[in-house]
Amino acid sequence: MRTELSRRLGMECALFGFTPFPAVAAAISRAGGLGVLGAVRYRDPGELARDLDWLDAHTDGRPYGLDVVMPAASAAGAAGVTEADVEAMIPAGHRRFVAETLARHGVPPLPEGERSRWRITGWLEDVARTQLDVAFEHRLALVANALGPPPADVIDRAHRHGTLVAALAGSARHARRHAGAGVDIVVAQGYEAGGHTGEIATMVLTPEVVRAVDPLPVLAAGGIGSGEQVAAALALGAQGVWLGSVWLTTEEAALRSRALTAKLLAAGSGDTVRSRALTGKPARQLRTAWTDAWDDPAGPGPLPMPLQGLLVAEALTRIQEYEAEALLGTPVGQVVGTMTAVRPVRAVVDDLTRGFERAVARLGRMAGDP
């Protein structure tokens, strides 16, 4: 399962694994792929520096990457706008709606003095830039931007550092724009994927993006959870796959909530929904009473990014803290239906590799038939 891109990065197999957990990222890299740590949850650059130091020490010299969120435009306006400035834009009616939803499900407040753990501020450009200041002090092989190409000066800085730049795209039009901005890799993220997605399925999107940005390498993302699906992605012209959801139920992820782990293991492929309830942009996640409340036409509706994420931050921490089962969810793709057991990262990678080999052998036999 090696391609020109994986060889360039010193990988044993063309598996790029996005995860918010440093232990998972390290395990992916040690298993021969490339672990990509999500930076969006880090409020304190010191915490990110600590975890990148840990990755340096626990990846056995293998490559790893960082995923940031730097939107081209947002409700926050120009760079330099602070978190407090954005908080002030949140309407009082939306705050009441959050409070009423939590009260209806009996979710207690946080203990006095405890702050929100789920505080996504990384999509503010100033925060993301601070994260990159920290990241470029480490041996970063890849920096990916979840919302398109990062600013030109960030791409230039990454290239000076010897770091490749990837950008996620949900259409061929977006992919061409990313290529024109100077990125090195385009991630074709289909509708099936967890988190922010577009409207086009991976099977259709991948070859469209491959043709649109040739000769840039393309990674396929969305609806990929088996080695057979990896083989299909490479057959469509991708030089690797970008996997996120499959790592959520690994031993290394060690999800804090047993109830959430149980929901993931029990969920079927039809138990997710694309909703703006989490961040303000359409993101695939488990369908819950929380997503239903925000998607209800009778409600106020989600705010644009980044207002929605700041609005719901404390509420989501409370939901997780008290394991409010009806409201408890997480971003996850449609492959959740195949995630039926908690396993080590190495076992997931081994299964992907074996499934890929089976698929290639089967196609080889077909190709050899008279």
Automatic annotation (TrEMBL):
UniProt-listed InterPro entries: Aldolase_TIM (IPR013785), NMO (IPR004136)
**Which keywords annotate this record?**
Flavoprotein, FMN, Monooxygenase, Oxidoreductase
The molecular function GO annotations come to: monooxygenase activity
Source species, domain of life: Bacteria
Family matches, as Pfam families = NMO
Report which residue ranges the record marks as coiled coil.
none
Name assigned to this protein:
Nitronate monooxygenase family protein
Which PANTHER family does the entry link to?
A: 2-NITROPROPANE DIOXYGENASE (PTHR32332), MONOOXYGENASE RV1533-RELATED (PTHR32332:SF38)
Q: Does the keyword Iron apply?
A: no
Q: Is Cell inner membrane there in the keyword field?
A: no
